[in-house]
Fold:
Amino acid sequence: MYGIEQKNAIEMAIDEINESRMLGDIRVVGIHMDDGADKAQTVNIFQRLINQDKVQVILGASLATLSFAADPIAQAAGVPVIASSNTAAGITDIGNYIFRTSPPENILFPGVLAYAERKYNIKKAAQLYGIDDQLMKSAYLIHKEALAGAGIEVLLSETFNRGDVDFSAQLTKIKAAGPDVVVLGALAEESANILYQARQLGIGDNVVFLGANAAISTKLFELAGPAANGFLVGASWYAEYPSPKNQAFVAAYVKRYGHKPDVFGAQAYDAAYIVAEAVRRVGRTDDRKAIRDAIAATRDFTGVIGKLSFSATREPIVTPKVLEARGGSFVPAE
Amino acid sequence: MNDLLAAYGNLIDMIFLNSIIAYSVWLTLSANMFSMATGGFLSLGAYTCVYLTMQHGLPFFAGAAAAALAATAVALILGLPLLRLRGDYFALATLAFTEVVRVVALNWESVTGGALGIFNIPKYTDTAVLLIVFVLAVYFCWALEHSPEGRARRSMRRDETPAAAMGVNIFTHKLALFAASGFLAGLAGALAGHLNYFIGPNDFGLMRTIDALAYPILGGVNSLAGPALGAAVFTIFPEFLRFSNQMREIILGAVFVLAVLLLPNGLTSFRGFRGSRRRERRMGVREKGGG
Structure:
């Protein structure tokens, strides 16, 4: 689901790196394996990549729950891992070989909230989140903490389950409580349904909806239509981000694959280049420890998502961007 | 050789683990109980063991024993009312149990971590432990098959009414088997909990239950080797087909449909494995020796 765009972007990056000969005689060989979003299969793959294919670096896994199971193996074997779509808290705490280019929700959301506070008069909030989804539960806790930190009173917290399509019960309660802002811990499809049904139930434009990073998808607009307008999310990247590097990336990607990349593709593309850059600095490929140290030393790397450095805890330091849904796409919020 | 072992270590572990689960399912299937409680027992075992070892500092051995016993107790309590149901109704009721366990795991945050699951679980389960439990499980099933219980079960499987007329207490037999199935699944759950550093409520849901049912059905319910063979094939196949990427699930499904159509008694009924198929057809089901 989230994996294909990352695979595409990484393969494109590897071809570019090899063609440009930025690593001299070192050629990068990518091995892609599909884990079927299954924990046991992900662990199988990590073991095989490390012990049989003897890879220097692993880019992945696509889902945080898989990383929690598989990353300890790479950590124990001393193989650096860079994830580009894990946004749950605690991934890089697994060990000093685990990195990510996907900023977690706790880096992104405070910016979104601060923007909303500046623009609107926010005093009371409601939260609505997926209780059985690892990522969304994690997002909910981060949202809650950020709201408390901003002194915004949370009137009520409502929940739903994965696969739910009818949110009218929760939204009716939220409408009755009368919050200024509704914070969603929901994936794209659920967010779209919630936005659509909220407007149907007569929750007006004076109520602002804030969402999680994982809600970013073109699917949101297909399902919600104009009801998505005004929905605010935080992201490291958006397709129209006007840096020359990003424009070149998006153009090349569209040319090669026929559609625009998504945010996880962009983060995966940068992860591949960060590895290449680290290998270039080390100058050889037989020392995983040196490669790890070089990755950890990444400072102000210019990627398609902008400048990226790794913090002491191997989290990405990027400039979070606040995006607003407007007319069928996410645009920088003004 | 060491590299090869390291590269496929988890695969080998998963084969043993899934085989243990397969025998747990086999115990119910071989007595005409289509139980879908496996996921619930696995979950119960995993959370019980991880809770005891991580929160109360119990040794792994004690935690696993407690997990197996807890699942057995729940199976007994569950079996008392549910075993009065038959066929589809029993399947649905046991499926409901698996779902209830999943929802409890989602909401009982102080013990299960809720949707976030539990991470940084110490790895205690290794290949040796799995091998030992696997051998014990096979021995248990073998001994059962060659005891009077095995004979009673075979007669029940053919037709419960004449079996009851011959003096087999159907209900007691089923309850005991259901409890034994719970014991094995609970133990397997405890082993699974300490295998991969992380567990979450959705690890042991409907999908895991259906996979578990597929092991003995694919391998063959009428043979003691069936469950292990089915589990091994089912576990290795996705790795074997990895080159096909997204096509894999489709190929996997097609292969299983073919296997069920061509070998309705499971892989162990394949001519190469044992006697002629005609004899089998004449016998209806295969009678094991000692009966």
In short: Chain B touches chain A at residues 3-4, 6-11, 14, 106-107, 114-117, 119-120, 123, 196-198, 200-203, 235, 238-239, 242, 245-246, 248-249 (CB under 8 Å). Residues 144 and 150 of chain B are 6 Å apart (CA to CA). The longest helix of chain B spans residues 2-29.
